Amino acid sequence: MPNSAYWYLGLSFVSLLLLTYTLIHARNVRAVFVFLMMNQLAYFIETVIYIFGCSYVYHPGLLKNSAYYDSNMGALTSNLLVIPTVAIMVAVFQLRWKWIIAMIAAIGVVEWLFVIIEIYTLNWWRIVYTAVGLLFYLPIAPILYARLQRPVRGILHSLLLFLCIAPIMGTLHVVPIMFFMNRSYDPGWFSDPAHDTTAFASLYYVFMTCVIVTFMKLQAGRVWVKFVAIALFIFIITQGLTTTKLLTIHKWWDPWFYCLFPATVYLLFRPISARFAKGG
């Protein structure tokens, strides 16, 4: 592995240690839910500024098949681990502003260091933008953490359920593509096929999450019927995308995986939906 990989892996390892310590200290599953929600909020921001805005490029050197997919690995380090971990620490430990400012400064130093050693390239983005964004992002975590103590219903229930499910859907959608090149999307938005695929996938998983939440909110119908309906619906969408040449499948197992894992996510999150409705 190149030296840059050790920096990213080390940052991921430290984040995992802090996340594990925080979740153990919290002693409640709400912390996990809020971590997922903050993960998705980070994904939303990254979709706008990184994928469609081309704000910066990561150079972890972990994937050799595509420079853009390798950059995505760096994005995952930031948005799957580092930033949401800091957010859940703020919520669980009820950190005051001086600690929040200190954490933002630490993230800024890491970002600056990565630029200096040339494993992270800024295009139009600036480190101060990260600091300002975190000032608005981090305080959301304690608000969500406190709100989940009380029953959640209606539109807010659907929104929080979406935020909880979406990062799992997005990660499971994109990561296999990065490692196994099992499918590619061709909307024609970017010259790099990997960039094109990532951009389309970033919207597609959001749509599929909305489908899962809709099925979950439906009161009528047996669970197994909804499971089959979700898988069948995705199969139809897949056929439509391949027919229009938006999607090219490269591995035999791809349609099975992308039809079954969202339906499985539906099954796994049904109890969580009920928990949100009860609170606590």
Descriptive report:
The chain has 280 residues and is mostly helical. It folds into two domains: 145 residues, no CATH class; 125 residues, no CATH class. It contains ten helices and four strands. The strands form two sheets. Strands 1-2 form a two-stranded antiparallel sheet. A two-stranded antiparallel sheet has the order 3-4. Helix 4 packs antiparallel against helix 5. Keywords: Membrane, Transmembrane, Transmembrane helix.
Q: Please tell me what the overall shape is.
A: globular
Total discrete domains:
2
Instruction: Kindly provide the radius of gyration, computed on alpha-carbon positions and rounded to a whole number of angstroms.
Output: 19 Å
The side-by-side strand order for the widest beta sheet comes to: 1-2
Give the averaged pLDDT, no decimals: 96
Structural class by helix and strand composition: mainly alpha
What amount of the residues lies in strands?
under 5%
Largest sheet: 2 strands, antiparallel
Number of strands: 4
Helix % is over 70%
Distance between the termini: 45 Å
Sketch the topology as an H/E string, one letter per element.
Answer: HHEHHEHHHEHHEH
Transmembrane segments: 6-24, 31-53, 73-93, 100-121, 127-146, 158-179, 199-216, 223-241, 253-269
Keywords: Membrane, Transmembrane, Transmembrane helix
